[in-house]
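ARCHIVE CARD
Drawer: 12
Card no.: 0347
Subject: one protein chain, sequence and derived structure
Cross-reference: see card 0346
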Amino acid sequence: MFRAAVDSDVEIAAIVDLVESAYRGESSRAGWTTEADLLAGQRTDVAEVRAAVTDPHSLLLLATDAAGERVGCCHVQRRIEPPAQAMAGSGDTDHSGEGAVGAYFGMFAVRPGLQGSGIGGSLLARAEQHAVRAWAAGWMEMLVIAQRAELLDWYQRRGYAPMSGRRPFPYADRRFGDPLRPDLYFVVLRRGLG
């Protein structure tokens, strides 16, 4: 089952735990999305999750099992691309003159023991559908650490393509974790929607 996350202390703490379990520490090694060899420290925190849940231009979507336990999540947020980039053909134009309307996809996690069961693909598809229905988004993009070859391949099999350029990893910002190697950077992936 899928539902929107709610702004409660219990729910937000459970989402933080879910995301941490998928990416950090020894428990994350039970799944294939672990970043434990690349980063230590936190992957997210209560403030980031609460901001995602309460932002009127975003949705934090949860997957739950039959008992109501949270087994997966993702965050999709409305984005406006500057008009100069929109004119270059990177998305559908918003008739308000702001530029191309799209969406950003992140905070994607599936409980490690359930990875590979189809939950992730279903969450991604529902996030794309929400972006199109709620915002008429013409594209969805995300940032993926370049050293995560298997994750890049997973997204590319679902139609996401690398954009030109790359984004630096925020080494100075401990909110994103403690890097364990000096060569981390992000690849921007994008897929047209609709």
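Annotation on reverse: The radius of gyration is 16 Å. Residues 8 and 50 are 9 Å apart (CA to CA).
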